[in-house]
Amino acid sequence: MPQLRLALAQVNPVVGDLDGNAALVLQWAHRAHEAGATLIAFPEMVLTGYPVEDLVFRETFAAASKAALRDLAAALAAEGLGDVPTIVGYLDADGPVQPGAGSESDGGPRNAAALLAGGEMVATYYKHHLPNYGVFDEDRYFVPGSSLSVVRVGGVDVATVICEDLWQSGGPLAVAHEAGVGLVIVINGSPYELNKDDARLELAQRRAAEAGATLAYVNMVGGQDELVFDGDSLVVTADGTLLARAPQFAEHLLVLDLDLPAASSGLTGPAGELTVSRVTLSESAAPVPEPARLGEIADRVVDEAEVWSALVTGLGDYVRKNGFSSVVLGLSGGIDSAVCAALAVDALGAQNVYGVSMPSGYSSEHSKSDAADLAERTGLHYRTVAIAPMVDAFLSNLKLTGLAEENLQARVRGVILMGLSNEEGHLVLTTGNKSEYAVGYSTLYGDSVGGFAPIKDVRKTLVWQLARWRNADAAARGETPPIPEASITKPPSAELRPGQVDSDSLPDYEMLDAILTLYVDADRGRADVLAAGYEADTVDRVLRLVDHAEYKRRQSAPGTKISLKAFGRDRRLPITNRWRETH
Amino acid sequence: MPQLRLALAQVNPVVGDLDGNAALVLQWAHRAHEAGATLIAFPEMVLTGYPVEDLVFRETFAAASKAALRDLAAALAAEGLGDVPTIVGYLDADGPVQPGAGSESDGGPRNAAALLAGGEMVATYYKHHLPNYGVFDEDRYFVPGSSLSVVRVGGVDVATVICEDLWQSGGPLAVAHEAGVGLVIVINGSPYELNKDDARLELAQRRAAEAGATLAYVNMVGGQDELVFDGDSLVVTADGTLLARAPQFAEHLLVLDLDLPAASSGLTGPAGELTVSRVTLSESAAPVPEPARLGEIADRVVDEAEVWSALVTGLGDYVRKNGFSSVVLGLSGGIDSAVCAALAVDALGAQNVYGVSMPSGYSSEHSKSDAADLAERTGLHYRTVAIAPMVDAFLSNLKLTGLAEENLQARVRGVILMGLSNEEGHLVLTTGNKSEYAVGYSTLYGDSVGGFAPIKDVRKTLVWQLARWRNADAAARGETPPIPEASITKPPSAELRPGQVDSDSLPDYEMLDAILTLYVDADRGRADVLAAGYEADTVDRVLRLVDHAEYKRRQSAPGTKISLKAFGRDRRLPITNRWRETH
User: Fold this and answer.
1) Which residues of B touch A400 (CB under 8 A)?
2) Is A127 a known active-site residue?
3) What whole-number distance in Å separates Cα of residue A24 and Cα of residue A21?
4) d(C-alpha B414, C-alpha A396), whole Å
5) Contact by Cβ (8 Å): A326, A347
C-alpha cells in the first residue's frame, strides 16, 4: 500500500495581501518539508485571503493573484520544495471579471485550487458548488467549475475539492467515488459558528463514506471583518475513523502518515455533473522518513472556551490586520465593557488596552469602583473623564429633555472616545451585545461608536456565561480572574437617569434572549414565539423593538460572528419595512 | 384583429405593507376599469413591495403574501372588477422558505406574477432569470421558474415575464416567440440609474423583436432605502415602434388600445429552457369603449431634471415610509447642505425642513450669511447654535489637537443635530456627496450623522450641476432660485481650521471625480487611471484614500442610488484589505 505523509497547513492569511500570503505559504511549506511531508495542502483562497468580495471584479487583482501563484510555484521549486506537491487556493480568471460578464467558456472568475509541483501548476480545480446564503455571495462572484482533476501522487489518486463541495451531497465527491480516488483533499475558508465543529466532523465522515476514500479537511484560521475562521482541520477515513484533528483558532501544521490504496486505471471523461481529467505526477511514493507520524487529535474545549477564543481571534486580527496596535473603550463598571476589556487584554496585551471611565451625575459609586477594579485586575491603562462639564455645555445651549438628554450623555462619551482615538491612535471598541443590537438598546453615535464590536453577536446571557467561565478558568490556572464579581452579579443598567435598570424597559434577559433566538436567529414568526410560552404583550414589544432598530444596526460597527445568524451580511432586512408580525 | 385596452399601473408600493399595497392595487384597478381597460398589469412584487430581502425567509410573511393575493382576487371580483384580467406581482412559496431549503420541486420561494380574473388565480408565472449582481441577491432568495404561462385573453395569447427575464437573451422571451404569443407583459421592479431609461427602451425594442410580439413594460415608482424606481413604463411593437411611455417618478396609469394578432393553436410543452402551459380565459375580445385610447408618450427630461426627481423621490419616500414628517440638517453655507436642503424642501415642503447653522470660530462670515440666504429663499425653519461653548468644554477636559480638534467640531455639530432630532422628532439628513464618501472626507459621527444621505451617490461636480440647473429651472418658471449663488461659486471648505479649503488636501473636483469614476464606478486599476492622463502622485493619493475609507462607508447612512455603482450593496469590499493598486 502506498504511503503519503500529508501536511495540512492551517494558516492565517490576510485578505488582499498577495505577497504576505505567498510568503506565509512558503514558510509553512518549509516546515512541512522539514517534517518530511510528501503532500501539502493549504486552505481555500489562501493566496488572496477569503472572502475577497468585490475585489473579484478588479482585473488588476485577479491578474495579480494568478501572477502570485506562478511566482509561488517557482519560489517553491527554487527553495528546494518542488518535489513536494503543494495544494494552494487562489483566485483564477482568464477572461472578463466584471459582474455578469463571466461564464465558464469565457474564463470568468473562479474560486480555484492549484496543485503545484516542480515549479509548475500541475492541475487546477474550480469550486463546483457555490454557496449563496448566509454570509456567502459566491454566485455573485464565481463561475462554477465542472471538472474534477485527479492527480496521481506517489501512486495514489488524489482529488481536491473546495469547501461548499463538501456541504452539498452529490457533485464532486460522488464523482470522486466514481473515479476511484484514494484521497480527497478539501480546502476550506469555513467561518466559525458555535457547534459547527460537531457538524463538520459528522459531515466529513459522511462525505468520506460517499467518496469511498480518506478525506482530509484543511481550514484557515483568523479573523476577517465579521468572520473568524477556526481551523479545526481533520482527517477521516472512508469508514469514519478520525485519524487526526488540529486545535481551533491557532495556526497549526497537522502532519500524519496515510496508507492509501494504490491507484488503478479509472474513469476519465464525463461523470455526473462533472468531467474527470487525470494527471500523473508520480507513480510510486517516496518513502516517508522516520519516525512515523501518527497524527494527533486535539482535545475539544468547552463551548465557552471556544467562543472566547473566537472572540479573541476576531478582535485581535481586526485590530492588527487593520494596522492598529491598541484599543480604547469606555468602562462603565458593567458586564459588557468588562468582558470586552478582558477580551482585548487577551488579544492585545494589557499594555495596548486603554480604558476610560466617564461618570455622570447618574453614575453609581459602584460603577466607578467596579471599573477601577477591572483595570487593576487586568493591568490595562485607566483614566477618568467626568462628562458633566460637556453635558452641561450642551444643556445650556439647547433644550434637551427626557430621552434626548439621556442620549446626550452617551453621545458625549462617544465624542470623548473618538477624540482619544484621533489624538492617541487607538481603535475604539464598542461594547454592545447581541441582545442590545437586536432591540436597539443603545444610543446611535453614543455608546455605539467604534471601529469594532467584539461581542456584537454574543447574547447577554452568554456574555455572563463567558465572564463566569473566564474568571473560573483564570482561578483554575492560579491567575487573577479579570472580571470583577460585582460586574457579573449586579443588575444591568445604562445609568442614563437616576435609578435606571435595563429591566425597566426590557424583559429579563433570560426571556429576552429566548425570544430573540426564535425571532432573529431562527426567523420564526409571532405565533411560533407565542407557542413557546411567552406572554403576548412581551413578545409583541420585543418584536416591535427588533423591527424598529434596523436603521441603527445598518450603521453599526462590524463584530465577530459566532452564531448561525449574526447581524450583518447574514441577515439582510430592509430599513423601510412595514411588515409587522403584529397588526 | 382582436383589440385589448391595456392599462399599465405604475404605482408606488411600500415594502412589507401587504394591506396597503393590496388597497393600492384595488384603487388603481378601479381607475383602470373606469378607463375601460380590458387588461391591467401591476409591477413586480407590487403586493409585498420590492426588494423584500430576508423577509423572504419569514414563513409568516410568505404565507401572508399568498393570503393577500387570494383576498385581492376576491376583492377585485367583489368590487365588480372580476371581468378585467389583472396581473399582480407577489411572493410565492408552498414549501420551506429557509435559505438553501428551496428547490422548484419542494415549492421554495419564488418571485411570482399572478393573472387574477373572476376572483381566481387563473395563471402564475415564476421569474426565470434571477439577477445576482449589483444591488441584486435573487439567487439568495428565489427558486427560478421553468414554465411560461400563456393566457388567452380576448382571443389574444398573452405571456407575462418578470424584469430580469427581459435583460437576458434567450429564456422566456425566446419561448414566447416559439409559443406564438401576441403580447408580452413584463412586470418590473427596476431601480433607477442615470441613463438607464435609454438602455431600457432599446432593450424593450430588441426583446419585442425576439419575441415577435408587442411588449408592454410596467415598472414601479418610489423610493425603497437606497433604491428609487423611476417608472418609465412603456409599450413597443415587434417592429420597434414606441406606442406609449409614462413619465418618470410619478404614479401613472398608462392606457392604450392595442390591435393584436388573434391567437392560433400554438406550442404546448417543453420549449428551450422552459415548458409552455396554456389557459384560455376568453376567446373573443370585449369591445373597448369610445373614445379610443391611443396612448401618450411622455417627454424625456434633461439629465439634471431626472436626477433631481430621483433624489426628491428617494428622500421623500424614505422619510414618509419610515413614519417621519420632517427633517433637520446642518446648513454650512456650502453647496452640499444647500442642495440637500433644496431637495428636502421639494420633497417635504419648507414647513417640514429644519436648518441649523452651527458656526465655529473658524466659520467665515459668508458661511453664516449664505446659510441664512438659503433659508430665506426656501422658507425653511432656520436657527443658529454656536458650537464654541461645547467645543471649549471638551478642550478644557481633554487634550485634543490637530485633526482630533477638527473632528471634535464636526462631532459637536453631530450631537446637536441628533439632540434636536430626539427632542423634536425630525429625521437627520447628512449632506456628504459621493466624492467625499469615496475619499473619506468626512468626520465619522460628525458631519456623517444622519438617518439618510440624499446626495450620497452624487459626485461633487454633479452637485454643482444640479444646483445650477435647479436655480435656472426656478428662474425659468418665475420662481426664486433656492440655492444662493455664492454657495455655488465659492471654493469648497470644511472650515475646520483657519483658511482651510478642500483643495488643500484633495485634487480639484473635476480631476477627483474623473479618477473616482474610473476607480470606483468602473473598477479600473491604477494603470488604467494613469493611462487616462492623470499624475501618478495624485492617482496614488486618491486610490489610497478610497481604500482606507471603507470603514467609514460601512457605517454610513443609506442614500439614493443614481449611478451604475453606488456605495452600499452595489459595491461590497472588505474593510480588512491589504490589496493596494500601488505598492
Assistant:
1) 419, 422-423
2) yes
3) 5
4) 17
5) no
DSSP state of B447: T
Can you tell me the distance from the alpha carbon of A417 to that of A486, in angstroms, rounded to the nearest whole number? 25
Strand partners, B40: B7, B86
Torsion of CA B17, B20, B25, B26, to 10 degrees: 150
Instruction: Supply the mean pLDDT for chain B.
Output: 95
Question: Considering only CB atoms, which chain B residues are within 8 Å of A129?
Answer: none
Instruction: Encode pLDDT of A197-232 as tens digits.
Output: 789 999 999 999 999 999 999 999 999 999 999 999
Tell me how close the Cα of B583 comes to any Cα of chain A, in angstroms: 10
Determine whether the interchain pair A392/B390 forms a contact, defined as Cβ–Cβ distance below 8 Å.
Answer: no
Chain A residues with beta carbon closer than 8 angstroms to that of B576: 14-15, 223-225, 317-318, 321-322
- Let me know the angle formed at the C-alpha of A146 by A140 and A150, rounded to the nearest 5 degrees: 130
Cβ atoms within 10 Å, residue A528: 15
C-alpha cell at A390: 460637556
Q: Closest by alpha carbon to B559, among A62, A554, A53, A583?
A: A554
Q: What is the pLDDT of residues A16-70, one digit of tens each?
A: 999 999 999 999 999 999 999 999 999 999 999 999 999 999 999 999 999 999 9
pLDDT on residue B214: 98
CB contact (8 A) between residue B60 and residue A581:
yes
CA–CA distance, A552 with B451 (Å, rounded to integer): 9
Q: How far is A208 from chain B (nearest CA, A)?
A: 23
Count interface pairs A-B at CB distance under 8 A. 241
Residue A14 CB neighbour total at 10 angstroms? 22
Residue in A390, A408, A445 nearest the CB of B397:
A390
Average pLDDT over residues B66-87: 97
Active site residues of B: 44, 127, 163
pTM score, whole prediction? 0.97
Give φ, ψ of A271 to 5 degrees. -150, 115
Chain B residue with CA closest to A403: the answer is B422
Q: How many residues does chain A have?
A: 583
Comparing C-alpha atoms, which of A301, A165, A320 is closest to residue A232?
A: A301
The C-alpha of B346 sits at a distance from chain A's nearest C-alpha, in angstroms, of: 21
Distance of CA B155 to the CA centre of its chain: 37
* Alpha-carbon gap, residue B317 to B485, rounded angstroms: 29
Q: Please determine, for the modelled complex, whether the ipTM score is greater than 0.90.
A: yes
Q: Looking at B379-433, list the stretches that DSSP marks H as alpha helix, in order from N- to C-terminal side.
A: 388-397, 402-424
